[in-house]
Amino acid sequence: MSTTDISHDNSVFDNLNTLQASLEQGVLHITLNRPKARNAMSLEMVKELSTLFATAEQRPDLRAIVLRGAAGHFCAGGDIKDMASARGSSPKRDDGTEDPFFTLNRAFGRMLCQVQSARQVVVVITEGATLGGGFGLACVSDVAITAADAQFGLPETGLGLPPAQIAPFVVKRIGLTQARRLALLGARFDGQEAQRLGIAHYVCASDQEIAETLTTVLSQIKRCAPDANAMTKMLLLNTLESPLESVLDLGAEQFAQAARSPEATEGAMAFIQKRQPKWAE
């Protein structure tokens, strides 16, 4: 594990076993780092991701979070070793604690909610295996960049399991009819199809194109005011869950708050003076 240029919360970044993390110019880069398992999602990785996103929530100076996988794969799904360990445990616990399978599965769902609601813009780069849990992470990103030859899929039903925590996020990303097809057939597909379905936004033919696309996306993010972006993201997500009038009321409250903020003052002055606002410098 390596970290570079992280000025706050060093203890969080220094105690990672399944991830790599670095901070570069206001962007937190997180790499899923279990290459021998194609970065399969262990409970330890879930906990470490959850801790990083909880830390990022307290860091308004962070503009974006970039998630990718090590050694040419994003994430091959759930960790089989964790599953085997849980299978050896009894579902009935005398001390009233949860079934280990429930704990393992539900922890992943809570982490997906954290990623989806992060105040920062979350960018996911998918390469190689993007299956199960990796598919779920792609579906909660704000921006998804994929390699053309990445392999997406929901393999759970072929293993005798439902995509329990992933399903709601897949449906919201691509719609019910396509989610049913993919989940019930266990179909595999590439980055081009992922873009057609709305999972990915950019398809790249090479590592260089991925790097160039990421640079462009991050520069666009930095042109947007960070607090305004956080409010906008919350508003957009609320459109999926709340009644229209409630969403519009919240929007008006956020607009009034933003209009009186230092960000709006700086944005107006930058426009009048024909210069970049300070947050874009």
UniProtKB/TrEMBL annotation:
Taxonomy of the source species: Bacteria, Pseudomonadati, Pseudomonadota, Gammaproteobacteria, Oceanospirillales
UniProt organism field: Oleiphilus messinensis
Protein family: Belongs to the enoyl-CoA hydratase/isomerase family.
CDD domains, per database record: crotonase-like
Name of the molecule in the record: Enoyl-CoA hydratase
Single Gene Ontology MF annotation: catalytic activity
Gene3D superfamilies to which the protein is assigned, alphabetical: 2-enoyl-CoA Hydratase, Chain A, domain 1 (3.90.226.10), Lyase 2-enoyl-coa Hydratase, Chain A, domain 2 (1.10.12.10)
InterPro entries linked: ClpP/crotonase-like_dom_sf (IPR029045), Enoyl-CoA_hydra/iso (IPR001753), Enoyl-CoA_hydra_C (IPR014748), Enoyl-CoA_Hydratase/Isomerase (IPR051683)
A Pfam cross-reference name: ECH_1
SUPFAM superfamilies in UniProt: ClpP/crotonase
GO BP of this protein: isoprenoid catabolic process
Domain of life the protein comes from: Bacteria
